Amino acid sequence: MSEKSTKGIWKVITASSLGTLIEWYDFYIFGSLAVVISTKFFPSDNPTAAFLSTLATFAAGFVVRPFGALFFGRLGDIIGRKYTFMVTLLLMGGATFLIGCIPSYETIGFMAPLLVLLLRLLQGLALGGEYGGAATYVAEHAPKGERGYWTSWIQTTATFGLFISLMVILITRGSLSEEAFDEWGWRVPFWISILMVIVSYIIRKNMHESPVFAKAKAEGKTTTNPLKESFGNKYNLKFVLLALFGAAMGQGVVWYTGQFYAMSFLKTVMNVDSSQVDGLLGLALLFGTPFFVVFGWLSDKIGRKTIMMLGMLAAILLYRPIYDAMYTTTDVAHKTEITEKTVINKSVKDLGEGKSDSIYDISKEYTDGTKFKQLKTVHLDKGQPVMVDGKAKTDVKTTVEINDSDKWMLIFLVFIQVIFVTMVYGPIAAFLVEMFPVKIRYTSMSLPYHVGNGIFGGLLPAISTYLATNAKNAGDTKFYLEGLWYPIIIAAISFVIGMVYLKRKNNIDHD
């Protein structure tokens, strides 16, 4: 490959990756702030229901991604790759900025969650069109035999987008008091996105159309109905379904388990301090991200299937042992309490009309340096506990501040999951691009990718949290592992289909 052509493709990757990174940043800010958002846009009388509602709203953005893939994929195959993903960039940035402007539930009532849901759906539509455009655009600039390597740079953008979202949140938290961040500071990461979008738009505006698509258009080889040719043609539909169930579906659940479920698990199940979770997850992502390129490059040498299937198999076999190790690492039941440092402060908050809250502020320290804080609020009516379903209505907020040894252990355990992610995700763009001809490529590759990731992957946090919550309520001592059955089963189905029906070697070049 010549120096000139190398320089040219780096310009393509930089421009494409920057915009895609910003779109992932916009999309993930919502997930990264899910715990805070649940208290702002949903009723506060049931924290668990509010958090599940937030996860459901988060998942809604994923569910509509296939519709975005169809709508923008069609435009991309008719009009061109460049103009289509410029539109998705502006749509995503505008929706993200507006989420940061919506008044809280206390101010506008049910209009708050309704507006958040609407904007979240717009984000999902935008992302549905963005990824296929960026991956196709880069692949069509890449030399033959090197698509795995060059498209893997696009694959890093999703993880970098999450990483940057975590870093922006950490910096914002560190710059403000806890009260200020809770009151208005959480909105800042949403507002920042508009500046990033403007910069990316200016860069993308100066890009040229994909040479492969431009050639096809000049020769009259594009299509006027990519949806019909992609899904109405039995031959093409077979490859769409194979791409979905033999690869993208399993890749989707592995991706979201290793990054989003891991974050949700640390914060809501293990009760680790939110800032510590953001920091350790950020480090695990930083260490793991280069492996997207490693496995993308390796897929050019030994085939996409081998690497993706090994990644799925490793996840299937190791998820439960990994999450069991994560939980026991910080479980205070296995630690020695320094009893003389235990402090319990009790106070009563008078709410008027005979109602009050009895508040217990509990602090504990352990010999290994772990710190435990719990704020327990018992709701009273005329001095008697308010009963709900035969139990006293009690709100409990627990925070565990982990020691350095536990922190590095958790970084390692999350890093292992990120390696699984890089194995299944690094080669997937090249794999999908090579399955379909130029004239229907944007549409055909976008749909299986976004169904696999948007529906099977995007529903994972909500479904897994629901399964774990039900197991906990049923008294299961290993409740924290039950949420893993969803990604394990989906990945196992995809693994079997992929092993049986996918070819071992890379797909034939359709250009």
Automatic annotation (TrEMBL):
One of its GO terms (cellular component) is plasma membrane. Gene3D superfamilies: MFS general substrate transporter like domains. The keyword Cell membrane applies. It comes from the Bacteria. InterPro entries: MFS_dom, MFS_sugar_transport-like, MFS_trans_sf, Sugar_transporter_CS. The keyword Ligase does not apply. Its main location: membrane. It holds the Pfam family Sugar_tr. The chain crosses the membrane at residues 12-37, 49-72, 84-105, 117-138, 150-172, 184-203, 239-259, 279-299, 306-323, 408-433, 445-464, 484-502. Keywords: Cell membrane, Membrane, Transmembrane, Transmembrane helix, Transport. It is found in: Cell membrane. Residues 12-506 form the Major facilitator superfamily (MFS) profile domain. SUPFAM superfamilies: MFS general substrate transporter. It is a multi-pass membrane protein. One of its GO terms (molecular function) is transmembrane transporter activity. This is MFS transporter. It comes from Flavobacterium akiainvivens. The lineage of its organism: Bacteria, Pseudomonadati, Bacteroidota, Flavobacteriia, Flavobacteriales.
